[in-house]
Amino acid sequence: MDDPPGLGAFVGEVHANILRALGCEALVTNGAVRDLPEVRASGLQLFAGNISVSHAYAHIFNFGETVRVGNMNIRPGELLLGDRHGVVSIPMEVAAKVPAAAQGILERRQHVIGICRAEDFTIEKLDQASKELGLMEVQERARLNERPKRGGL
Predict the structure, then answer these.
(1) SS3 of 30, please?
(2) How far apart are CA 42 and CA 102, in angstroms?
(3) CA angle 2-43-47, nearest 5°?
(4) What's this model's pTM, rounded to 2 decimal places?
(5) Which residues contact 52 (CB under 8 A, 6 or more apart)?
(6) Which residues lie closer than 8 Å to 6 by C-beta, 6 or more apart?
(7) Residues 51, 32 contacting (CB under 8 angstroms)
(8) Where are the domains of the chain?
């Protein structure tokens, strides 16, 4: 991790394929990446601070240590979930509960979207659904026995 991050890309098509061959699923960096279509085709997932047209001169001097990306410390072996909007750290003690919680969130979102797209949409129906979904969320959290934990990039 550079502070400030460099402008040249550390990962592109070649490094993405090297990382995949080494068993890496994803890369989180505060630096730049390039060759996005080719990297996507490799299956490597990226979360980066910048996109660059050019490669960088990089010298890896350490591996397997805690790094800071954005305002988040990332430790070796930590479970991360990321998408184009950011990255969050998932504590291992709740990791097994994440799929069920995510499914519940997806179902609630789809329910609201369905109401909004319906021919007979009304504010009253949306308000009623909001109340029902709020109760469902409370019940789901009680079932999962976890308080919401916030944090991420």
Answers:
(1) coil
(2) 26
(3) 30
(4) 0.63
(5) 7, 8, 9, 32, 33, 34
(6) 31, 32, 56
(7) yes
(8) 9-90, 95-144
* Residue 116, both tokens: 């909004």
> Average pLDDT per run of 10 along the chain, which is 153 residues long?
70 95 89 94 92 81 80 86 86 89 88 92 88 74 61 55
Locate 98 and state its tokens.
């994440």
pLDDT at 1: 54
**Topology given in CATH for the domain delimited by 9-90:** Glucose Oxidase; domain 1 (3.50.30)
Residue 25: other Cβ atoms inside 10 A = 10
Tell me the two tokens of residue 130. 């909001």
Cα torsion 88, 93, 95, 97: sign: negative
Number of neighbours of residue 90 by Cβ within 10 angstroms: 16
Number of alpha carbons in the 13 Å side-chain half-sphere of residue 26: 16
What does the block give as tokens for 78? 């930590």
77 token code pair:
């072996």
